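Write out this protein's structure.
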Amino acid sequence: MADFQNASGTPIPGKVTGNGYLGVVDAPLRWLAQGKVFEAGHGLQDTAADSQGETTMTPDDVKATLALQAVGNKLVVPLVWRIMWEAEGGAATDYQLIITKASAQCATKLTLSGRDALQPGLNMYRANPAKASPTASALYGVATTFLLTVSALVTADMCMYDFAILVDNNVLSPVTNSSRLYERHFLREGVPHIMTDGAAMIFYISSATTDATVHPYIQWAELDEADLI
């Protein structure tokens, strides 16, 4: 193994191949080995989270379904979101994903209430004891309503990242699509987002009539600035 120093003076591991070429470890693998990558989701018998059951396809901006929110001074980088559909709900389901500023920069300080944490919030480096515990919050709505209540947001506070209308049976029918998954791998989609204290990635899922139900999975890294250089 050979070490380099980045611009902040932090050692960066690398390796020499059999041909004498120097290879630098891929950043996500390095974060994983350092105990900085986490995952959360539902357990085997957890009740699926509900979408908004609305009379129109337009989601209510104060009623979210899922969220990942940065807490404290770590830089939170979303890696993977996976939604596993249990039921679609209605004739179609509207899915939108937004990313907000840090909460203190929002016109009204961003708060997420009426929520439960996705469990268990595991460090993906399975060591005993764990290398580190997560600081970010992976959230979904509490039982009975399954809705996250989001404080007032204005357009300047957020940016829409993804939008989809999932037509009835397009997800669950084996004829049209054998997968029940809708997922995003954020490191494949350009420069990753970095969320700081209070910033959130928020999912809105709404149906024209009955609720859709989903099981979420989230994977993220918690970094310091030196990890990005």
